[in-house]
Amino acid sequence: MKQAGVFLKKNKSFAVFAALALAIVAVAVFAPWIAPYDPYEAVMTDAVQAPSAAHWFGTDKLGRDLFSRVIFGTRTSLAAALFLVAVISVFGTMAGVAAGYFGGMVDSVIMRISDMMIAFPGMVLAIAVAGIMGAGIVNGVIAIAIVSWTKYARLARSLVLKMKNRDFVAAARLTGSTTWHILWRYMLPNVIPTLIVTGATDIGTMILELAGLSFLGFGAQPPVPEWGLMLNEGRAYMQTAPWLMLFPGLAIVLVVVVFNLLGDSLRDMLDPRNE
C-alpha cells in the first residue's frame, strides 16, 4: 500500500487520467444501472423535448431519452475502440517484428503492403472498404483495422532493427536460442512498452474515426446508441434542438481528451529520462 502511495504521488498526472479513464470504463460497464430509461424506447409524445428534470439531456426525434443513449453510447463506442486498438496493435506488432527481424522478402512484402495503405488517406480508404462491405459497426471496425495497423508495424519494425544486432541478441544466438525464444524473450519485451503508449493514445483516435464513419452513415446503424450516429441524427435539428448534437459531441470530446492525456502521461512515466 505504501509503495502504491509513493507511485501515485510520483506520477500524479498518470494517476488522475487513469482514474478518469477507469470512470469512463465504469460508465460503459454499468450503463444499464446508470441510464434512467431504455435507450431504445421511443415515446413519440415526448419527441424533441428540451433538457429538463425528467430528461437531463432532452429527448431525440423519437422521444428517446438522450442521456440514456449517451450513457449506452459509451459502451458502444468504447468497446469498439478498445477492440479495434487491440486488433491493430497485436497484428501490426507481429507483422513489424517479423519484418524487422527476418528482413529480406518478408520485410519487403510487409512494408510494400504498408506503403500501399499509407499512400491513401486513412479515412477515405476506410470509407471505401466500409462501403464495399456494407454499413454496420462491425464492418466499420474491420474497415478501420485494415487501414490502421501500419503504424504499429512500422514502429515495431524500427525498434527491432535497432535491437537485433546488439550483443545480447548475438549472445543468445551463440548459446543456441531458437528464433522464437529470441523474439519472445528479447524483442517483444523491448517493443511492447512503446506500443502500449501508442495504443493508449490511439483509443481516442479510434473513437473519433468510428464516430466519423457512423456520422457519414458507414458505421453504426439505427437504433444503436452510438455518438457519431447521434450527431448525424441531430443535424436536421441543429438550430431548433441543438442539444441533440451538443451532448454526444461533448461526450466524444471528453473521452478523447482523457485517453489522449492518459497516453501522454503514460509515455512520460515510461520515459527512462524521467527516472
From TrEMBL:
<keyword id="KW-1003">Cell membrane</keyword>
<dbReference type="Pfam" id="PF00528">
    <property type="entry name" value="BPD_transp_1"/>
</dbReference>
<keyword id="KW-0732">Signal</keyword>
<keyword id="KW-1133">Transmembrane helix</keyword>
<dbReference type="InterPro" id="IPR035906">
    <property type="entry name" value="MetI-like_sf"/>
</dbReference>
<feature type="transmembrane region" description="Helical">
    <location>
        <begin position="240"/>
        <end position="263"/>
    </location>
</feature>
<dbReference type="GO" id="GO:0005886">
    <property type="term" value="C:plasma membrane"/>
</dbReference>
<dbReference type="InterPro" id="IPR050366">
    <property type="entry name" value="BP-dependent_transpt_permease"/>
</dbReference>
<feature type="domain" description="ABC transmembrane type-1">
    <location>
        <begin position="78"/>
        <end position="263"/>
    </location>
</feature>
<protein>
    <submittedName>
        <fullName>ABC transporter permease</fullName>
    </submittedName>
</protein>
<dbReference type="GO" id="GO:0055085">
    <property type="term" value="P:transmembrane transport"/>
</dbReference>
<dbReference type="Pfam" id="PF12911">
    <property type="entry name" value="OppC_N"/>
</dbReference>
<dbReference type="InterPro" id="IPR025966">
    <property type="entry name" value="OppC_N"/>
</dbReference>
<feature type="transmembrane region" description="Helical">
    <location>
        <begin position="12"/>
        <end position="35"/>
    </location>
</feature>
<dbReference type="InterPro" id="IPR000515">
    <property type="entry name" value="MetI-like"/>
</dbReference>
<dbReference type="InterPro" id="IPR053385">
    <property type="entry name" value="ABC_transport_permease"/>
</dbReference>
<keyword id="KW-0813">Transport</keyword>
<feature type="transmembrane region" description="Helical">
    <location>
        <begin position="78"/>
        <end position="102"/>
    </location>
</feature>
<feature type="signal peptide">
    <location>
        <begin position="1"/>
        <end position="18"/>
    </location>
</feature>
<keyword id="KW-0472">Membrane</keyword>
<feature type="transmembrane region" description="Helical">
    <location>
        <begin position="123"/>
        <end position="148"/>
    </location>
</feature>
<keyword id="KW-0812">Transmembrane</keyword>
<comment type="similarity">
    <text>Belongs to the binding-protein-dependent transport system permease family.</text>
</comment>
